[in-house]
Description:
Chain A is an all-beta fold. Chain A is built from no helices and eleven strands. Chain A starts with a strand and ends with a strand.
Amino acid sequence: EVQxxxxxxxxxxxxxxxxxSCAASGFIFSSYWxxxxxxxxxxxxxxxxxxxxxxxxxxxxxxxxxxxxISRDNAKNSLDLQMNNLRAEDTAVYFCxxxxxxxxxxxxxxxxxxxxxxxxxxx
Amino acid sequence: xxxxxxxxxSLSAFVGDRVxxxxxxxxxxxxxxxxxxxxxxxxxxxxxxxxxxxxxxxxSRFSGSGSxxxxxxxxxxxxxxxxxxxxxxxxxxxxxxxxxxxxxxIK
Lengths: 123, 107
């Protein structure tokens, strides 16, 4: 059974830092692109960042570029999101998500998600 | 960036109704659209990808259509468990972008 379990959320002051982690199990982690998607309270979904299988390709939404870094450790089946210089608008539930692949094709859509971890940026 | 605009933002319907939710892309995305269903305090669940391909295990009352810039999610006969928020997402190019959501409520 595929499981994605996020941790590391919490309350942080504006300008502060936080590191989110996602523990993956039940699939060959090193074979899949992974992403972080966030959802502000009562709002819609926003893609944040994606990383390829070996960590050599990383993509970010413009609003977090230069402040956020996605990384992975395939030996530990873990995905991280280092967030620096946090702003109030970064307040959201952050989901770790696995990209969907068929036997022949991978799609930048998400078939498994974690339960999310809440990040609150407030003084 | 490609903007995805859903309509309506909210919708009330009866069990058994046929409902349609629309999603318009600000530029052509071919058929690279996925639809998700999200229930309160839960992660989204993918329903349809490539505009019209039903995800495994999703009931056949869900269907999708469209290509280019205009896409539609149809639920042929609403069931009580279908009341949720629905999102479209394009994956034609980065940044990946979502529609703002359509909240489907019981009338």
